[in-house]
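Researcher: Please translate sequence to structure tokens.
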Amino acid sequence: MLRIAVPNKGSLSEPASAMLHEAGYRQRKDRRELVLVDAENEVEFFFLRPRDIAVYVGSGKLDIGITGRDLLLDSGSQAEEIMQLGFAGSTFRYATRPGTAKDVTEFGGMTIATSFAGLVTQHLADNGVDASVVHLDGAVETAIQLGVAEIIADVVETGTTLRNAGLEIIGEPILKSEAVVIRRTGAPEDDPKVRQFLRRMQGVLVARRYVMMDYDIRVEHVEKAVALTPGLESPTVSPLHHEGWVAVRSMVPSKEAQRIMDELYELGARAILTTGIHACRL
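Model: Translation complete:
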């Protein structure tokens, strides 16, 4: 069986389980369940702390896992990213009191507090900066107020929490993170079970981004219509019983569906319908 690590809690947990469910895999009904065997799909799921997943996968104990890019890089494990999953996006940045420093090149001799000590240590080394790193669990914005550090490095969404603490974001982002699928570095790339898993996950990503659009249009307007709905390869065009009309079917980006429907209507298209896509293979 393919052995897969899944986050058991936190912001990664629910979206990961939802995506796996959409991909046709069984998911646990009880949060206390730590191992789930999906015999029909020949997969065994292990529900672990997100921060530990890269360690298990990197050691070869588990085949692949779902975790955050930030957690993967912070772990220092022998694991690598093989697919982006498009959820749990975040930006990791430095912050400090106004006037302390402008960017990472001015951090020499200072102390940085963070929950991602490995990631920050590597970033400082990459920039040739000699500074101390203090590891803290949980919120780190009070570290400056309490004199533990001059700088903090943390996940930033809107920046409101930092501003309320009297801090400002400085420098370029350390990292832009999201949920990713990982495997052990150097693992065989042609594993058929892993390839099947990735195809399923890719199918979910596509199904979430696209809808199927159907419409009827006069033959003389087909070329203009299909220019609006080119599909992934080419739309399906079928003659209708009513002479001079055809039916067109094509996948279109869901975010653009309403605009495309308006433009098709102006071209003379009628019976314009959109339907959700639950699964696909490209």
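Researcher: Any highlights?
Model: The CA atoms of residues 5 and 53 lie 6 Å apart.
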